[in-house]
Amino acid sequence: MHRYRTHTCGALREQQIGETVRVSGWCHRIRDHGGVLFIDLRDHYGLTQIVADPDSPAFKTAEMLRSEWVVRVDGKVRRRPAGTENPELPTGQIEIYASEIEALGPAAELPMPVFGEQEYPEDIRLRYRFLDLRRDKPHENIMKRGAIIDSIRRRMKEQGFFEFQTPILTASSPEGARDYLVPSRIHPGKFYALPQAPQQFKQLIMIAGFDRYFQIAPCFRDEDARADRSPGEFYQLDIEMSFVTQDDVFAAVEPVLRGLFEEFGGGRRVTQKFPLIPYATALRDYGTDKPDLRNPIKMQNVSEAFRGSGFKIFANILEKDSKAEVWAIPAKGGGNRAFCDRMNAWAISEGQPGLGYIFWREGEEGGAGPLAKNIGPGRTKQIADQLGLGVGDAVFFIAGQPDKFVKFAGPARDKVGEELNLVDKDQFAFCWIVDFPMYEWNEEEKKIDFSHNPFSMPNLAADEFLNLDAADKEKILALNAIQYDIVCNGIELSSGAIRNHRPDVMKKAFAIAGYGEDVLEQKFGGMLRALTYGAPPHGGIAPGIDRIVMLLCGEENLREVVLFPMNQRAEDLLMGAPSEVTPKQLKELHIRLALPENK
Question: What is the DSSP letter of 176?
């Protein structure tokens, strides 16, 4: 017989009744029923019920056991007594009557129980993550993560992609987030950097003549944590393709993500053909470039209903500022004063002066609320007709310059949808956001800046772009890049782009933003040189693995789907990182510390 087990704790069935077996695992739960001990023994594969009574030679040892002790149990498989079966367990028809128990690993008093799914403070969970991962839900999440990554690899290979590995120790990048730097012992005063992403390497792979690359790539960024962003490190499905248009990238990525979410989404509906939403339209309709399309609300411009109206606040805003607009957030089913007042109070709690509204109820012509009284039944009807609203509905208004109030408008739309239960949560709603502006106006420095990725191809024929007048501010600010985001349920999974593969176009693009060729050569000389030796048109994308798994596990925080996450301060409480190092280590690296005085 094997030293530790003949079967796992999830393997035994009625077919094994009568057999003598050996199992090993953790004491998940111990129950004393009138002197008879019942032990739920747990391993990676499942639970098996162990029974020890005073007649069993293992009874004295069983009495010593405590929660999470690791034990080996020998015994005979028998059918559970009638009425005690557990149909929710695969092993729920049988139990093991223990003849021998060996304590393999006694456990100290636990800082947090493993049985049950109670909430515990984050610092306790992270410090004792090895215990936290014994709990059902975290354990399931990590196993599901592995299965998802296996499925991604299979699907990518079926699409004709080949997996490559790119360097971890590389050069520091001058753009993006802060790098994690690694001092070089044999090159005093010089540093490697951990890659923020394999961006330059995957483009170099295309320039080297390979065609379809992917990698489950580790990325490292020294930036603050958020619920949808891990501090320190994360993984992404890194993709690059040669001789492709934007549509080719979409055609390659959509089947992978659609199939993945159908496979692991628990039966929830998945968008079949991802809609393309221009960036400007997304801001106007949803107040964000990461719209949650499960929420059916679309905002609309209703400025004409207030222009010259009796509601002087909005009328004056429109009269004095040519860029000002009034946006409406329709609220189907929100037609009562209690809800409208609650939304107004929420707006004030968000630092706004309030949230104007109109609502419609039976027997009240022209709508109800202060705004309705001020603008009159004609204009109220105009708004209702434009938005398709009627009795039992409401509408909320935001006025000013859209580029200034849009950051509030988007959350307000989300809030209305959530409060009125309009969000259909039984689906994964995907979309592509396209046509991002290539440049934006920097009001502080009074200059044109790159809006997003400076290495995206402008959405303009190369010759036309090269002939652009750098002083034609209006035309330049209207120019879009061939850049795209993929969004699911209001979460940005990834940004991508068709890359700028022409050195002359790249030089022009940087010149428009005020960067001379010397700066381009200094910061991106390696990539620029590579492009001069025959670069194919290429593009790609890099969906975040952690965010995909978070969505498919139904979690709201990435730390629930990462094996050993850091806390919000980028600290590994389990291993004690970051940590101080010895003077000898610093001396070997030719480093002297200059700590802040308040350290």
Answer: S
C-alpha distances in Å from residue 10, one per residue of 72, 208, 377, 550 = 15, 50, 69, 27
Q: Which two tokens mark 455?
A: 């290495």
Q: Can you name the residues that pair with 50 across neighbouring β-strands?
A: 39, 96
Taking the mean position of all CA atoms in its chain, how far away is CA 30? 39
- pLDDT under 50: residue ranges of the chain: none
What's the CA gap between 78 and 59, in Å, rounded? 17
Residue 403 is given by DSSP the state: H
Measured CA to CA, the distance from residue 593 to residue 178 in angstroms comes to 19
Q: What is the pLDDT of residue 176?
A: 65
pLDDT of residue 548: 97
Residue 533's CB is within 10 A of a number of other CB atoms, namely 8
**DSSP-derived secondary structure for 415-476:** HHHHHTT----SEE-EEEEE--BSEEEETTTTEEEE-S-TTBPBSS-HHHHHT--TT-HHHH
Number of helices and strands in the chain (H, E) = 18, 23
pLDDT tens track for 199-224: 999 999 999 999 999 999 999 999 87
Q: Say how far apart CA 302 and CA 383 lie, in whole Å.
A: 7
* Burial per residue of 486-500, b for 16 or more beta-carbon CB atoms within 10 angstroms, e otherwise: bbbbbbbbbbbbbbb
pLDDT digits (tens, 9 = 90+) for 526-555: 888 999 999 999 999 999 999 999 999 999
Query: CA-to-CA distance for 138 and 435, rounded, in angstroms?
Result: 39
Q: Per residue, what are the HEC states of 104-123?
A: EECCCCCCCCCCCCCCCCHH
Task: Check if the beta carbon of residue 327 is closer than 8 Å to that of residue 342.
Answer: no
Spatial contact of 310 and 374, defined as CB atoms under 8 Å apart:
yes
Q: How far apart are CA 126 and CA 129, in angstroms?
A: 5
What size, in residues, is the chain? Answer: 599
Over its C-alpha atoms, the chain yields an Rg (Å, rounded) of 31
pLDDT at position 295: 98
Rounded Cα–Cα distance for residues 160 and 396 (Å): 50
Token digits of residue 224: 């603050």
- Strand runs (DSSP E) across 261-303, as ranges? 269-270, 276-278, 300-301
Count Cβ neighbours within 10 Å for each residue of 168-200 and write b for 16 or more, e otherwise.
eebeebeeeeebbeebeeeeeeebbbbbbbbbb
Please measure the distance between the N-terminal and C-terminal CA atoms of the chain and give it in whole angstroms. Answer: 59
To which residue do tokens 């027997």 refer? Answer: 363
Burial class for 323, CB neighbours closer than 10 Å (0-12, 13-18, 19+): exposed
